[in-house]
Amino acid sequence: MTSSDSFATPGEPPSEIDTSVPHSARIWNYWLGGKDNYPIDQLIGNQVRDTYPDIVFAAQASRHYLARAVRYLAGEAGIRQFLDVGTGLPTADNTHEIAQRQAPECRIAYVDNDPLVLVHANALLTSTPEGACAYIEADLKDPDTILSAAAGTLDLSRPVALILNGIMGHVADTAEAHGIVRRLLDGLPSGSYLSLSDGTDTSEASVQAHDEYNESGAVPYNLRSPEEIAGFFDGLELVEPGVVPFTGWRPDPDPFGSQQEIDGYAGVGRKP
Q: Model pTM?
């Protein structure tokens, strides 16, 4: 992640977009079938896919997990505020759309630092009249700035769902990554939740593909073991079924029994 301490508002010009360097949000967009990417992103995306064909399914499975987690949080858990860090480019069923279908009064603060995401900020800022939706340009590694800016949209004295979907792999050091999550959670009250998903080093093909990706010039993405991902939830009350592969977290009914496990783990935990 590149460093940024500026905040976006509709109508402001974005930072310069370098179309010669691949970017994780745009590569992810390409794997999901989106059009907000450039030839360099497609080139790297294809190289990774050639080594690890399941990467496209993994991207889709991660997105589907996000939808199920947000439905749970806004529905069964009754959460009305969401802090989505590393949101990436807009696609179908963004966090605010899923949450506000459950409860129109939900308030969502998105955080990212890709200038192309900023170009599309207006799409993210379409909220129900009852709720609110804002975009913050900030660095994952600056949790204090994230919390300070989010307080402009969210009431941090009331429970918040912290969403970290496919983002913590951009922090190489596991202890540092765990510390960032703890600092973000420290700024949220009891009754808040963490929803986190990330890729795992559970197959040789996945590890090789990510090694190639990390050599492409894009910001590296570091795979972790399932145990290291579970460590993000230390001190939290895990929601059943715990920290499990993407496809195993409260899957939607599948009459064909075709759920495929993937090299990525996810979970939801409640702050006591």
A: 0.86
Evaluate whether 81 touches 159 at the Cβ level (below 8 Å): yes
Residue 6 region, left (φ>0) first, then alpha (ψ -120 to 50), else beta?
Answer: beta
Residue-wise pLDDT for 208-256, tens only, equals: 888 888 888 778 899 999 999 999 999 999 999 999 999 999 998 765 4
**φ/ψ (deg, to 5) at 20:** -95, -10
Residue 68 CA to residue 54 CA, distance in Å, equals: 21
| CA distance to 20, 150, 184, per residue, from 169 (Å) | 23, 22, 16
d(CA 253, CA 251) in angstroms, rounded, equals: 6
> Is the separation of the CB atoms in 215 and 228 below 8 Å?
no
Q: Considering Cα of 143, then 28, then 162, then 199, what sign does the dihedral take?
A: negative
Which amino acid is present at 152? Answer: G
Cα first-last separation, the chain:
30
Give SS3 for 9: coil
Question: 90: which DSSP letter?
Answer: -
Q: What is the DSSP letter of 100?
A: H
Nearest to 140 by CA among 121, 122, 165: 165
Gyration radius (Cα) of the chain, Å: 17
Q: Rounded to whole angstroms, how far apart are CA atoms 195 and 163? A: 5
- Judge residue 220's burial from the number of C-beta atoms within 10 Å of its C-beta, 0-12 exposed, 13-18 middle, 19 or more buried: middle
CB neighbours (10 Å) of residue 49? Answer: 17
